[in-house]
Amino acid sequence: MYFALPLLPANEIIPQLKRIKQDIRSKMVERTDRKLMLVFHEKYMKKFWTNIIRPARFSVFGNRHKTNNSAESLHKFMKLVIPHKTGFFPWFQALHLNIIKKAEDDKAHIDAGEEVRKPLAPEKVDYGR
To answer: How far apart are CA 31 and CA 54, in angstroms?
Structure first.
């Protein structure tokens, strides 16, 4: 229930947190579970994520990329363009063409004072899979 909150518009996150709290109070059967969930809700979700971080900062609603973790984004891209079950050399060729070469090209553009433009989606290349 909490994991979907960043996918909402920032102005809808706090009302949904209130609804989650009501659900915890009304639907949790075991008293100890309910107490733990309410502590988690109040101490972590409400105090940290809504009062310190703020919904406007952690909402990814409308963003093209749903993560601010570059390694996670790179890993997803690599899974799309690099063959999974192949030998080392085809895998390395795909890595070089799709990751290393593009990074070198981006650096050359930056060094030349040019804007770096990224494609909307990675090109799918057949590496003899």
So the answer is: 30
